[in-house]
Amino acid sequence: MAYLPNGADERRQMLEAIGAASVEELFATVPERLRHPRLTLPEPLAEQDLVTELERLAGRNHPLGSLDSFLGAGVYRRYVPAIVRAATARPEFYTAYTPYQAEASQGTLQTIFEFQSMICELTGMDVANASLYDGATAAAEGVMMAVAQTGRRRVVAAADLHPETLAVIRTYGRGRGVEVVTSDDVSTSVGAGDACAVVAMPGFLGTMGELAPVAQAARAVGAISICSADPIACALVTPPGELGFDITVGDGQPLGVPPSFGGPHLGFMAVRQELMRRMPGRLVGLTHDRHGRRAYALTLQAREQHIRRERATSNICTNHALTALAATVYMARMGGAGMRQVAEISVQRAHALAGRLSALDGFELAEPARPYLWEFALLVPGGADDFARAMRRQGIVAGLPLGRFDPDRREQLLVCCTETSTPASLDRYVEAASLFAGPVEVNR
Amino acid sequence: MNGTTEPGMEMSRVPAPEWAGAEPLVFELGGDLERGPREVSAGVADRPLAELLPGVALRATPAPIPAVPEPVLARHLGRLARRNHNLHQGIYPLGSCTMKYNPAVDEELARLAGFADIHPYQDAGDVQGALELMWELERLLCEITGMARISLQPAAGAHGEWTGLRMIQAYHAARGDTQRTRVLIPDSAHGTNPASAALAGLEVVTIRSNPDGTVDIADVERHLDGRVAAIMMTNPNTLGVFEKDILEIARMAHQAGALLYYDGANLNALVGLARPGDMGFDVVHLNLHKTFSTPHGGGGPGSGPVGVAEALTPFLPTPTVVRDGDRFRLDHDRPQSIGKVRSYYGNFGMLVRAYAYIRAYGSSISAVAENAVLNARYLQSRLGGTFPMAVTSDSMHEFVATTKGSRVVGLRALDVAKRLLDYGVYAPTAYFPTTVPEALMFEPTETESKRSLDLLADVCAAIVAEAERDLDHVRGAPYLTPVSRVDEVEAARRPVLRWRRAE
User: Fold this and answer.
1) A249 lies in a domain?
2) With a CB-CB cutoff of 8 Å, which residues 187-206 of chain A face chain B?
């Protein structure tokens, strides 16, 4: 049956060794009225039927690769070098457990140490952990660190944080009586009663704000500064560590992890040296074995739940090791220079597309005064939902209609370009959009 | 941490190249700091970045991460892979971790473009298959657990625990019952239980165990009052013993106005055979990476769906998946929800694997529990002459042995664990539960063959026999692993958490 190796003979021999007459006898401690509930479950499937069923479900989805997609908003379709998948498909990595027994887990431990090191180089921070669940929970954990460090319970968050990140910070905060306020100008809003200031690089709408003043303002009032950063942006612009931030968090999905309907991705967190022991999650350290050979081990575990229980820095028990491995291999293959090149291509294409679209009658940038990287909010004629629907009929996912996050932005679409948005697809976008251009009679 | 002097991180300490036998770090492989791999051309007019990004400070030089040539990187990864124990190499009898075989087909299925290459913000019309899968998976898990609804959002078991506790808090608050700030947790519980409770802002009250490892019902009664929000239990508990008084504990909890929380870490003992919902649990979290065989990945990503009884459904994280006729959509309009506990909808790739795993077994899924318990009991009987057992009660899918009181005075759990590695066997969970001295907790799972269990039992017997002759030799283990015993004390005393290039 499915994945069970023992046949009837072996089972009989095993029962004999135990001294039990039947398998049922092994469940004697379970009250009889609880045993064998009548379950309505489908028939077991042969592997071939299983593949057919899952292919049927997959076939009801329209993958981004089959469309011209300009959807980003926190999850990016970036090109993933084949070596990344080749690594994560190795059973030596994907079937391994958390590396508690260091001597038999040096492979996983070293890749995590490499991940920590590369995240530090990318963000300009001192210390990084082994990864967290995603960018949103990483931000929330950063906020909880700041609350613990300062003993203060108010959080000032930039209004242009990713809405999912903001929502998760609020959920985490409610459990601890932490108040979250948003601000369009965090550097002037943060005050002496605040645990931290949280900003995004870039903001949800793709724009870059003045970030160094936020770090300075937070420091001046004894608050912790937190930057939620896109890792590919960190390869192009001055990274948060050099801007003076205490904590950098973010979602590592752009580093070689497929969109996968929103997960699994990975969160990353990197901090200043002084905050090292407040960090949640796994940490791998370099040490040596009995013979003085280089070796790695999980370390500073006194922060963690299995030692500290209710006094731990967090309840986190895992990291996202396999997706962090993908990010490790991606970063090592691309290098800092390769990631910067990817960022530049994205910037060039987004600006080219934005220029061509805003030249059309009825289209314009929603935030024309603010610099943006590879995403921009675009005012479109006739409402963003209708426009997106019409574009979709042409096989184009034109962007994310912003009305669902902000009713004031119902006319706006968040448009994203990456290195996978081909020049031909840009042409098709402009051509299809031009049918909407002109005086406002396009109200369909 | 306790006011003693910080030794500092020794940031300047450069790993000595003469440490022989080590695989170089990715920074030491001679990659290119100036140029990455060949990239596509932008294909649009190339404009100066300063003009496109006015006022944005750019990096003067690329981030100092070398671009490693593919052949060099491939060999690096291949060599690192060989330094990992894994399920394709040998048994992984970690108690509480349920290291069962991960079906190869599930890996293929999760990589289908129709699952991996879809975006969480695509229109519902473009992701009907994904929503259908989530809807169906929720129904299957409800059936298996006996719960009314399940949120697939939590990213891991501990995340599910905290999500479940937040819902319990919301439930009491919605009833105006604001005095319930405590959680009762047995002393043998996983460390995540109290840590999750603390993260939710709840006070932890520890409940004693009986000598047989089960919860002391009198101690529960003593602490059960109007301040208790919930009792968190693992069943079978961390000693692998079924909580025989569970129905009585459920009755007591509910009578006192508290809710009962099920830590699903050990559901592999019962899947398809008994349901937490029928035992009276109000909230249940599952570890899809345990019972439902999504791979552990070297420590994640996991997936920790959390199920609730009818009365708690309004508080589920948002969004949920709903079905309208033959169409599926996300429901964000849930005013009493505790909110979002992570971005998007969950670790979807793990949901695909778990769905495939459950469909492969279907109505025969109780065979998983039957074989898991049979394997564990058989292994326990084979080890009976080698190690004393922590408790005499009948265990289920896992059991706790101890080296204390074994034939060799001074033989420690750690030494046995390390010596096992030399035989190509991963160590059982050592020193947990903390209520048992020198604990070795074995969980073979249903995917081990009898032959594999016999081998493990023989190896354990050989190690004890060896220790009788030469304890120091066992204490010096491991000898055959890529590195010998790792100095974890040094790792913690002088933390070196990243590579630094030589000044």
Assistant:
1) yes
2) none
Shared-domain flag, residues A323 and A342:
no
Whether A442 has a pLDDT exceeding 50, the answer reads: no
Partners of residue B45 in chain A, C-beta under 8 Å: 348, 352
The question of ipTM being above 0.95 is answered as yes
Which of B119, B172, B441 should one mutate to test binding to chain A, selecting the residue with the greatest count of A CBs within 10 A? B119
pTM for the model = 0.96
Judge if A279 and A180 occupy the same domain.
yes
Find the closest chain A residue to B319 by CA distance.
Answer: A164
pLDDT in tens, B366-411: 999 999 999 999 999 999 999 999 998 899 999 999 999 999 999 9
Write out the two tokens for A61. 């989805």
Domains located in chain B, CATH noted: 118-364 (3.40.640.10), 366-481 (3.90.1150.10)
Q: Which residues pair with A180 in a beta bridge?
A: A155
The model's pLDDT over B413-450, given as tens digits with 9 standing for 90+, comes to 999 999 999 999 999 999 988 889 999 999 999 999 99
Phi, psi of A324 (to 5 degrees): -65, -35
CA-CA distance, B34 to B17, in Å (whole number)? 24
Q: Which of A311, A329, A347 is where one domain is finished?
A: A329
Tell whether A227 is covered by a domain: yes
B426 closest CB neighbour out of A101, A134, A422 = A101
* Last residue in a domain, options A307, A329, A351: A329
Owning domain of residue A371: 66-75+335-442
pLDDT at residue A309 in the model: 76
Does residue A275 share a domain with residue A382? Answer: no
Conformation bin of residue A101: beta by default, left when phi > 0, alpha when psi is -120 to 50: beta
CB B97 within 8 A of CB B296: yes
Using one digit for the tens of pLDDT, what is the confidence trace for B296-343? 999 999 999 999 999 999 999 999 999 999 999 999 999 999 999 999
B105 in A contact zone (CB under 8 Å): yes
Check: CB of residue B180 under 8 Å from CB of residue B229: yes
Number of domains, chain A: 2
The strand pair at A194-201 and A224-229 is best described as parallel
Backbone conformation region of residue B462, classed left if phi is above 0, alpha if psi is from -120 to 50, else beta = alpha
